[in-house]
Design brief:
Number of helices: 10
Number of domains: 2
CATH class of the largest domain: Alpha Beta
Strand order of the largest sheet: 2-1-3-6-4-5
Structural class: alpha/beta
CATH topology of the largest domain: Aminopeptidase
Largest sheet: 6 strands, mixed
Radius of gyration: 22 Å
Shape: globular
Number of strands: 6
CATH superfamily of the largest domain: Zn-dependent exopeptidases
Helix content: 40-55%
């Protein structure tokens, strides 16, 4: 055994570096769909935020891409008027609220002027179904939803997501609502053409069950057609079996006012489905199918 080295106290620099690492690890990751902006930031994303604030009727000062005190004050004023947490930080919820208010469309195409809400199931402390191998439904639904958003925006749609990262919808609101109510409120807060909720199924009684299912609001012929179109398109784009579409006793379907469908893409209890869902190319295939279904339904 070698001679022990004498213990020395860590330097101030070492302590500071360790503290910084801990802080970074504790910051919730909310995805790259909505940048997190605050006082002192600068760049194109800040300029886009300033334009949204101007369109919403709040004065951020010159649209110069600099997040200064006037932009911070305008952000706080908007947050206060929208019932959000007033912290002057433009996070995913603030971005989503501004986009809904301003009607932002990122391109031209067959869906230009259409507003679509994408609802990635679960999130935050609610993981959804957990596979036998440790996969969480909330991770798959967010990955797919983010890709669907990109496909729809490329076709000119205005897309709002009920969550942009791993958190519960409404967790940034004040007062904080139930997460299901938050999802519905986001959809009902303006004229939305379509609501799409994305989930992954589970059936522990038979791990061999695999495929796509769609659910719709009872009494809504349009929602039924939407669910059927989406399920058929996903089955076609992925090769998953189209099981069926059914009336769904789900809060997000029965309390939204527009055509709404809840899609179950594969099964968390099926090894093959989970193996596919882990792969980016398969999530892209799912997203292409959902985007195609949305387009076919809206342009029918």
């Amino acid at each position: 055994m070698g001679k022990a080295r004498p213990l020395t106290a860590p330097s101030t620099k070492t302590i500071a570096l360790a503290a910084l690492v801990i802080i970074i690890l504790l910051i919730p990751v909310r995805g790259d769909a909505a940048p997190l902006l605050r006082l002192g930031d600068y760049g194109d994303s800040v300029a886009q935020l300033q334009e949204l604030l101007v369109n919403a009727g709040f004065d951020p000062g010159p649209v110069d891409g600099i997040f200064g005190p006037r932009t911070q004050a305008a952000t706080m004023s908007f947050q206060r008027s929208a019932g959000l947490v007033v912290d002057g930080i433009a996070g995913p919820v603030t971005w989503g609220a501004l986009e809904r208010l301003s009607g932002v469309s990122r391109g031209a195409g067959p869906l230009r002027g259409r507003t679509i809400v994408i609802d990635p199931g679960h999130g935050g402390p609610e993981p959804g179904a957990i596979s036998y191998w440790g996969d969480k439904e909330k991770d798959f639904t967010l990955g797919i939803a983010t890709k669907v958003r990109r496909y729809l925006e490329d076709q000119g749609a205005i897309v709002v997501m009920t969550r942009y990262g791993d958190y519960s919808p409404g967790s940034d609101w004040s007062p904080r609502p139930d997460e299901l109510l938050a999802r519905v409120s986001i959809a009902n807060s303006r004229g939305v053409d379509l609501f799409l909720s994305i989930h992954i199924n589970a059936y522990p009684k038979d791990p061999g069950v695999s495929g796509v299912m769609g659910f719709y609001r009872a009494g809504s012929w349009e929602s039924q057609q939407l669910a059927r179109t989406l399920a058929a398109c996903v089955s076609d784009s992925t090769g998953l079996r189209y099981i069926d579409t059914q009336q769904g006793p789900y809060y997000v379907l029965n309390n939204t006012y527009m055509p709404a469908a809840l899609m179950e893409i594969g099964f968390m209890t099926n090894w093959n489905d989970v193996s596919l869902l882990r792969q980016n190319w398969f999530q892209e295939a799912v997203a292409r199918g959902l985007a195609r279904g949305v387009r076919e339904f809206l342009n029918r």
